[in-house]
Amino acid sequence: MNEVTFCKLYGNIPLPQLQGYGWVFCEGLTTTLIVGVSCIPFVILLGLLGAWGKLSGNRVARIVAGAYTTVVRGVPELVLILLTYYGITLILQKTLTAIMGEQVLIDIDRFTAGTITLGLIYGAFATEVFRGAYLAVDRGQIEAAKAYGMNRHVAFVRVVMPQMLRFALPGLGNVWLVLIKATALMSVIQLPELMRMTDIAARAVRMPFTFYFAASLLYLSITIVSIWLLHRGERWASRGVRRA
Amino acid sequence: MGGIAVIYENLDKFAYGLILTMELTLISSVIGLLLAVPVALGRLSHNPLIKWPVFGYMFYFRGTPLLVQLFLIYYGSGQFVSQLKALGLWDGMFREAYFCALLTLTLNTAAYTGEILRGAILGVPHGEVEAARAVGMSRFLLLRRVILPRAFRIALPAYTNEFVFLFQATSLVSVITLLDLTGIARDLISETFRSMTIWIFTGAVYCAISYFFFFLFRRIEWRWSGHLRARPGMTVAKAKAAAPDETPVVVTR
Which domains does chain A have, with CATH numbers? Predict the structure, then answer.
């Protein structure tokens, strides 16, 4: 390709060089965002559970939560994704075979497997965020709540939780930014997200640079929009705090 | 337990894979660290012609997935074969998955490390810089003797994470056909279908080495902070008072 076409490539929009494959980006981006967003409740739930386990007086809960974060911190995401993706299928298959008494073959749909896997991985990161946030709440606040006669449950919902949210938000924001980038790894299990769709198109059109570069700019724009939203969210969560 | 036998019989393959993984980690981390110093300084420069391009580089590499960067460099370079050939950068360089993997990992870690270092440089107490200026140090000497040594010490805890993440991120090179630890595992699984055993074994190896690195860096941290610890006969409170507080560095990954 000569320089003139290279300039034309990025000069005019809509890019005719995408050769009608522009829709690939729309579809891929949508799937990426859906996967990312559907992980969030899972991540938050596991994060809260993990943090509770780590902080609880229960020995078993502490050990389980500790093992969970230790393993996730020590093993690469790609390995964890492949392990859980094949692992979940295999375990379900074996249990079902044992229950039904005959050979059962199952194929989990990739979307579910991918969401569960990413949720499991980033739940461990969220665990650390929530643990830190809980510990950052001033002990005096809890004492004051007790002095008012609140029981533990009410004190948590009314006093600790809202403040935890403020302390946890920057950390959760980080988790989200990493999570959305990690969705690209879902392409190895053929989930048709942005990376996978780009891959297919790039091979078909034989313009890998153009397509991967466009995909990378889309990821970058997700990051930019997320950072902006998170910034606004943080301002909202700390609206009652005096700024120095 | 046929799976364990498969692992035992192929231990040599795993060892070769691990060597490639370590090789990629060490080479890209060393070059990345060397690059990170000018990157951090460029980001802190007041010259907009230096500052903004460096900012763009860091933002791009921190804001996009490593997998995309890897594909962009390895497969993407295929779009410019004739130009790269004319420049003599094709054969033995962009054509090789190994070179592309190393280049991507290096550029990626340099961007992250640059950001860590930038935060650390900003965390160097201003009084120390003023004192160094007062004794007449030149800018370069100030950097070499005061700012950078201090910044490296401040950056170490955050850099530990970055290093371990880089080690784990090398597993992605298996996607561009390299036979690192993960690549070997995938290969063996397609041969033997022992996916669970092999993945658990591979994960355990990564996990053990990750924690070994954490341990190693904690030792380095301990050594580098010798002057901040209590001397024999010194109370803990006094030692704490004597130790200046290091600004914690927060990094995204």
Answer: 21-237 (1.10.3720.10)
Instruction: Say which of B77, B79, B175 has its CB closest to residue A1.
Output: B79
| Contact (Cβ atoms closer than 8 angstroms) between residue A130 and residue A74 | no
User: For the residues of A55-115, what is the DSSP string, one character each?
Assistant: HSS-HHHHHHHHHHHHHHHHS-HHHHHHHHHHHHHHHHHHHHHHHHSS-------HHHHHH
How many domains, chain B? 1
How do residues B166-191 score in pLDDT, each as one tens digit? 999 999 999 998 999 999 999 998 88
When CB atoms are compared, the residue of B72, B203, B250 closest to A79 is B203
> d(Cα A90, Cα A96) in Å, to the nearest integer?
10
ipTM above 0.90, yes or no: no
Task: Please answer whether residues B225 and B34 qualify as being in contact, where contact means their C-beta atoms are separated by less than 8 angstroms.
Answer: no
CATH number at residue B33: 1.10.3720.10
Residue from A68, A88, A89, A209 to probe the interface with B (highest B Cβ count within 10 Å): A209
Among B60, B78, B186, beta carbon nearest to A220 = B60
**Residue B26 backbone zone (phi > 0: left; psi -120 to 50: alpha; other: beta):** alpha
* End-to-end alpha carbon distance in chain B: 39
Q: Cβ contacts (< 8 Å) between B68 and chain A: which residues?
A: 184, 195, 212, 215-216, 219
- The verdict on residue B153 lying in a domain is yes
pTM of the model: 0.86
Domain that holds residue B126: 2-242
> What is the average pLDDT value for chain A, to the nearest integer?
86
